[in-house]
Amino acid sequence: MIKNKKILSLIIFVMIVLIISVFLLIFFLIQNNKNQNLNIFGVWWWDNRIDNSYLEFAKNNNINEIYYYTSSFNEKTSNFIKQANDKEIKVYWLAGKCEWIEDNSDLIKLMNEFLEFQNSSSNKFAGIHFDIEPHQIADFEERKTELLTKFVNLTTQLKQQFSNIFIEYAIPVWMHDKLTINNITKPTYEFIIDNANRVTLMSYRDSCEEIYNCSKDEIEYAISVGKTLNLGVETQEIENENFITFYEEGSNFMFQELKKLKNLIPTNFGIAIHHIISWKNLKP
To answer: What does the alpha-carbon distance between residue 81 and residue 76 come to, in Å, rounded to a whole number?
Structure first.
């Protein structure tokens, strides 16, 4: 009888261990599956007057980052961040003026206002997404090297002055011009990636292959220096440049291409869509 009890106890113990092992395996597989979907999926939010249906749209399409434009930090801003955070979406402050490259006094003032907001609000931005485009300056072509150098110097200053803030930059795919700064010569995009916590590349093309191909150098460099990168896609209608936007193809085709693109980039890299209004209005 005692022997039978021991055997029964052993069987029960083994069954319990097996059950626990199965649950642990299931948990591991679930977590591993989640980790395979860690790609950032962001969207530019240039108009802060639009209604909450756009926030629902973002959530329903698995957006986990919003780059939210505002020139003021107030209760409305705080409320939006809270509403987005409640939907498990991070919000980054979106801002950018090409004039800051040559005179950053207004930018520094805004940065201090940003810090005041971050210190006082219970709903905080996750960081800053700068869209500072030197090519928008009227005489850019005539002063290209000078202005690109000033842009790099600005990113260096912001990195040094605001080292505790997550700062990323949206940059075009053509910033391959070589610059020499502090006796170091390399492409512009490498300097920007070095100074940023992250870069979002405006890799605006209308197929997976073209998006990836026009981003290869930036992807390889970001990986080599341990930085992350987002690949941006366009949804606005752009006349005579159909190849840079998914406006003609529609959302179903775009998502087919983005699904393929996800398989080509590291899981800690992401995709960003420009922008929420034109994407929501995109044909199926």
So the answer is: 9
Both structure tokens of 247 = 């406006």
Q: Residue-wise over 115-140: b if at least 16 C-beta within 10 A, else e?
A: eebbeebebebbbbbbbbbbeebeeb
**Greatest C-alpha distance within the chain:** 97
Beta carbons of 277 and 54 less than 8 angstroms apart: yes
User: Residues 95, 96, 99, 102: is their CA dihedral positive or negative?
Assistant: positive
Question: Mean pLDDT in runs of 10 for the chain (284 residues)?
Answer: 58 62 44 49 96 96 98 96 98 98 97 97 98 97 98 98 97 98 98 98 98 98 98 96 96 97 95 98 97
The reported pTM is: 0.86
Give the C-alpha separation, 104 to 149, whole Å.
14
